[in-house]
Amino acid sequence: MAQPTAIATVDLTGNAAKKDLKVLETGRPVAGYSNDDALKAKHVAVTGGKPYFRFPPEPNGFLHIGHAKSMNLNFGSALAHGGKCYLRYDDTNPESEEQIYIDAIEEMARWMGWSPDWVTYSSDYFDELYEFAIRLIKDGKAYVDHSTGEEVKKQREERVDSPYRNRPIEESLLLFEHMRQGRYEEGAATLRLKMDMQSDNPNMRDIIAYRIKYNEHPHIKDKWCVYPSYDYTHCLIDSLENIDYSLCTLEFETRRESYFWLLEQLEMWRPHVWEFSRLNVTGSLLSKRKINVLVKKGIVRGFDDPRLLTLAGMRRRGYTPRAINKFCDLVGITRNMNVIQINMLENSLREDLDEITARRLLIMDPVKVVIDNWKGEKDVECPNHPRNTEFGNRIVKFTDTFYIDRSDFHEEDNNSKFYGVAPGPRAVGLKYSGNIVCKSFERDAAGNVSVIHADIDFERAVKPKTNISWVSAVHGVPVELRHYTYLLKDDKAATDPDFLKYIDEKSEEVLRGVVEPGVEQLKVFESIQAERFGYYVADSDSKPGKFVMNRVISLKEDKEKGGK
Question: Name one GO molecular function term (predicted).
Answer without folding.
Answer: ATP binding
